[in-house]
Amino acid sequence: VNGHHQENGMENMSLFEVVKMGRSATQSVVDDWIEAYKQDRDVALLELINFFIQCSGCKGAVSEEMFRHMQNSEIIRKMTEEFDEDSGDYPLTLSGPQWKRFRINFCDFIAVLVRQCQYSIIYDEYMMDTVISLLTGLSDSQVRAFRHTSTLAAMKLMTALVNVALNLSINMDNTQRQYEAERNKVIAKRANDRLELLLQKRKELQENQDDIENMMNAIFKGVFVHRYRDAIAEIRAICIEEIGVWMKLYSDAFLNDSYLKYVGWTMHDKQGEVRLKCLTALQGLYYNRELGSRLELFTSRFKDRIVSMTLDKEYDVAMQAVKLLTLILQSSDEVLTAEDCESVYHLVYSAHRPIAVSAGEFLFKKLFSHRGPEEEGLPRRGRQSLNGSLIKTTVFFFLESELHEHGAYLVDSLWECASELLKDWETMISLLLDEPMPGEEALTDRQETALVEIMLSAVRQACESHPPVGRGTGKRVLTAKEKKTQLDDRTRITEMFAVALPLLLAKYCVDIDKVTNLLQIPKYFDLDIYTTGRLEKHMDALLRQIWEVVDKHTDAEVLEACSTTYHCLCNEEFTIFNRVDIARSQLLDELVDKFNRLLEDFLQEVVGFGRFFRPFYRWNLAHDLSKWDLFSSNYRLLSIGLQNGDMPEQIVIHAMQCTHYIVLWHLAKIIKPMRAFCLICQRYLNSINTAVKEQAFTILCDMLLIFSHQIMSSGREHLENLVYAPDSSLQEELLNFILDQVFIDQDDDCNSTDGQQEDEASKIEALHKRRNLLAAYCKLIIYNVVEINTGADIFKQYMRYYNDYGDIIKETMSKTRQIDKTQCAKTLILSLQKLFNEMMSEHGFNFDRSSSAFCGIKELARRFSLTFGLDQLKTREAIAMLHKDGIEFAFKEPSPQGEGGPPPNLPFLDILSEFSSKLIRQDKRTVHMYLERFMTFQMALQRDDCWLPLISYRNSLQAGMDDDAMSVISGISSRGSTVRSKKSKPAALSKRKLPEEENSSSSIDGVWMNREQSVPTPVMMHSPHLTSTVLREPKRMRPEESYAATFSVPAEQHLHQATQVTWMLTQRQQAEARQHQDRISMHYAKMRNHMQQAIRRGSGLMEDDEEPIVEDVMMSSEDRLEDISESMDFNTMEIDLPASKNRRERNELKPDYFDPSSIMDDSVLNVPMF
C-alpha cells in the first residue's frame, strides 16, 4: 500500500494489519489498494489474497511463486497445513472491542472495495474471478476458520454486487426511457447521434448486468447453497441474514419463491440464532406493504410455522415471531385466523416482558385499531366516547382470558402502545358511576370488578413507571421527560380520584374486591394537592367512607387496606396530617372502647367479640397502638384462655397476633437508641480510664450477642431489623482491647491508688475479671458474631497463658471446630503463621531452629494437632486445607539470597510437620504432590542444614505412603513389599479397603477444587501422563502452570504411574547409596546431629523415618531421566492431552456435514418446496 498509508507511517504494514488497526478510513485504504492494482495487479491481488488468509487466523502466507504456479485448491491445502492448531480462535470469534471493530471494518472494506471498482476493475475478468474462486474454495474447507471467514466475505461481496446490479438496473431503465422519448420525437427533431449513443450505453449496461449476474450466480451456487446448511450455526446465520438483505434491496430479482424457500426451510433450524435471523429477514420484507402480493404463497405455506414460533424456547425468537405476525396482520387482516390470533393473545400474560409487550401491540392492532364510520364524531372523553367502547373491549378481553388476578400484567403489556387509552381514568370513573344511557347495556358486577382492577393497575403503572412483580429485573432510571410525565400523571390522578374515590367507596362499600382495590389508590396521591387545590372537604368524605368500611367489614384484606390507607395519609410532612390523625385517633378510640366492653363479657358475646377483634390485628401492621395500652388487655385475655381452656381458637389466634405486633412496635422503638448507644460505647473503648473501657467492652459484647443474627433463627426472619452486626472497625477495636487488657503479665496489671502492689487476693480478682472479658469476646467468636479468623490472635496465646486462660481458649477452639472444621483449621494455622512472623521480625531470617521461640511454636502446633482427635475421617478436609495453607505460606516469599536460596518461611514446614500424622494415607499423597508444585529440582537436591525443614516435612508425608502404593502394583501383601514387617498386617487391611480410600481421596481432591475461588493459589487436580516432577525441567514453575498439570489424571492411573516411578527411584537411590557410602555416612552424621538438636521428640515425623534422611532425597534430574528412559519406551506411550478446540471441531466436520437432517428438525423434511 502507498499514498495515505505512507503518510501515516504504515507503509510496511499488511492490508490485514491496516484494517485491524482501523486508524485509516476504509475509503482511503481501498483507494490505495486500487492504485496499487493499477500499477501491478498481480502484486495487489496477492496482497488481497493474503488479506483473506490472515483474516482467517492463518499464520501462513501465499508467496508470489505459489500464486503463479499453484491452483487455488493447492494453495488452500498448503495454508491448511500451516494453520495454527494450538488454538481454535480466529479473528471473527475473538472477544473484545478491537475484534468487534475488526469485523465491522472487514465487512466495510469488502463493500467499499466493490463500490469503488464497480465502474471498471470488476469487469476485467481477473480480479473478481480470482477472489470469487478463492472464497469459494475456502468456504469448502474442513477448517472452520477458513469456512467462516470466507463465507462472511462471500456474502458481503454478494451484497455489494447486488447494490451494483440494482444501480445498473436503474441506469438501464433510465436509458431505456430516454431512448423511447428520443425515438418518439418527430423526424425533424430526432437526434440520430443521441439515439446511437443511448443504444451503445444500453448495450454496455446490459453486458455489465450480465457480468454481475454471472458473478452473483457463482457466489450463490458456490457458497450460499452449501453454507446455508453448514454444521456451524454462525455460518448459517450469516447466509440467512444476507439473503434477507438481497431480497429487500433488489426485490425484483430476489423476492420470489426460489429464494424465499431457503428462509422458510431454515425457520426449522435447531439453533435459535439462525431462527432469529430468519424472522428478522422476513420482518424487513413484510414491513413494506408493496411487497405483500409477492409473499402470499410464502405466507400460506409457512404461516403455521411462524405462529408456532411464538412459543419458541428462545425468548428473542418468540418475541420476533410475534412482531412478524403483527406486520403480517397489518398487511392483511384475512391471513391470520381466529385460532392464530388467540395463540398470540395469551402471551400478554407472559412473564418475559419483551414478549408480552409485543403481544400487547398485536392485541392493540387487532382489537383497537379499526374504527367504523359510526364511531366518527364521538366525544373524546366520557361514557359515550370512543375510549369508552375500547375500555369495555379491554374488560371483555380480560374476563375472557380467565386470568383475573393478572390485570397488572395486561396493563403493562398494553402500556407502550395504548397508554393514552389506559390513562383515560375519567372515562373509567364515568363507566362506574354514571347511569347507562337509554339502550345502552350496563356493566355487570363482574365486569365492574374487572374494570376497577384495570383502573388500579393503570394508576400504579403511571405512578411507579416499572413493570409489575415477576416481570422485569427491577426499577430503571427514568429520563427527565419520563419523570415529568410521571409527575403530571400523579397530579391528574390526585385531582380526579380525590373527588371520585369517596363516591366509588360509597357505591361499592359492601363489595370486598372492589373496596380492597379502590383503597389502594390513595397511596399514589400527591397529598399536597388536597391543600393547594382546596380539596379538604373531599378528604373528610374519604375518611368518613373508610370509617364506614371498617365498621361494616371483617375481611382481613379490606381491613389491611384501610390500615394501609391511613398509614399513607398520616404523613407528618403534609398539612393534612392533623386532620387525618384526629380521624384515626377517633376511630381507634371507638374501637378500643368496644374492645374493652366486649372483653368483660366475651363469654356471652363470643361471636361479636371475635368479629370485632380482627381490626386490631390489621391496624397493628401499620400503626403504633402503644398509647392505647392494648398489651394488658390482650395479655389478660390470653391468661384467661389458658385458665379456662374453652376460648374459641379464632379469638386466641387474633389476640396472639395483636400482642405479637404490640411487642414488635415496642422493639422498633429501641433500634435507633440501641445503635446510637453502641457507637458511644465503641468510642469509650479508647478512653484513658481502664474501668470505663472494661465496662464499655462488656456492654458491647452483651449487646452484640443479644442483637446478633441468632434472633432470626427458628423462623423469626421478621426480626431482621433488630440485628446489629459489628463492622470491621468495631471488630478490630474489640480485638485490640483483648490483646491490650487481657493478655498481660501480672506485674503489668493496674496498681492501687497508693502506688503499692496489690495483694494476692487483688491479683486473683483481677485475673477473674480478665477471664470474664476474654470469655465475653470468645462467645462472640463461638456464636459467629465476629469472624472466626479473628480468633487467631487468641489461639496463639494458648501456650503462653495456658495457666490463666487455657481452658477458655481450648473450649473456644472446640466450639469453633463444631461450627466449621475447615475454617477452624485455617484459623489455627493462621495463628501459627502470626507467631512465626513475630519471631522472624524479632530474630531475623537466620534464627536458630533450636531456640526456645521456635520450639515454643512447634510445641503449640503439637498441642493444636492433638485437639483434632483420633477420627481422621471427620477432620480430613480441615487437615488437608491446613496443610495447603501452610505450604503456600512457606513458599510465599522469594528467597532473599536470590534464585537457589531457601525461602525465608521455609522453616515453617518444620512446624507444619506436626500435623502430618493427622493426614490419612491418600491425603498424604495429595499433599505431597501439592508440595512438589512449589519445589524446583535444585531444592530436591539440596542437603544443607537450611533445607532440613523441607526434608523432614517430605519424609513425614511419605511415611506409610509408599507401602500401599507398592502393594497395589505388585498384587502381593505389604509384608513382601516393605522392610517394615511389623506393619504388614495393617497394610494388608488397608489394601482390602483401597477402593473406598481411593474414592475418599478423590472426594478430598474435589473439595480442594471447590475452594479455588476463595484462595489465591491453584487447587489440587489430577495430572496427565508424564507431567510429574520427574520429567520437569530443572527450574521452578509457577503454581498456576505446574499445579494444573500435576493433578489431572484419575487417582488409579496416577497411583500406577507414581508407584512405577517410586520403585525405579528406589532402585536408583540404593545403587547410588552403595557407590557413595562413605560420603553419605559423613553427610548423614552431620545432618543427624543437627536434627537431634533442632527437632524434639514427637515433632510430627513418623517413627518409620529412622532410615537415613538422605535416602529420601530425590536424584538429580539427569540421572533420573536416564533411569526412566531405560525402563520406558516413550514411543509407545499415549499422552492423553486435551484436544485443542480447533482439532475437536475438525473431527466433527465429517464429509456429510452438508446433510440438512443433521442441523434441522425432522419437521423441515416434510415442508414442500416451491
UniProtKB/TrEMBL annotation:
Alphabetical UniProt keywords: Cell cycle, Cell division, Chromosome, Chromosome partition, Coiled coil, Nucleus
Domain SCD: 224-309
Coiled-coil annotated residue ranges, if any: 165-218
Cellular compartments annotated: Nucleus; Chromosome; Chromosome, Centromere
Pfam families, alphabetized: HEAT_SCC3-SA, SCD, STAG
Region (Disordered), start-end ranges: 973-1004
InterPro entries recorded: ARM-type_fold (IPR016024), Cohesin_Scc3/SA (IPR039662), HEAT_SCC3-SA (IPR056396), SCD (IPR020839), STAG (IPR013721)
Broad class of the protein's primary localization: nucleus
GO biological process entries: cell division; chromosome segregation; sister chromatid cohesion
GO cellular component: chromatin; chromosome, centromeric region; cohesin complex; nucleus
One MF term in the entry's GO annotations: chromatin binding
Family per record: Belongs to the SCC3 family.
Functional summary from the UniProt entry: Component of cohesin complex, a complex required for the cohesion of sister chromatids after DNA replication. The cohesin complex apparently forms a large proteinaceous ring within which sister chromatids can be trapped. At anaphase, the complex is cleaved and dissociates from chromatin, allowing sister chromatids to segregate.
Quaternary structure (record): Part of the cohesin complex which is composed of a heterodimer between a SMC1 protein (SMC1A or SMC1B) and SMC3, which are attached via their hinge domain, and RAD21 which link them at their heads, and one STAG protein.
Protein name: Cohesin subunit SA
Organism ancestry: Eukaryota, Metazoa, Chordata, Craniata, Vertebrata
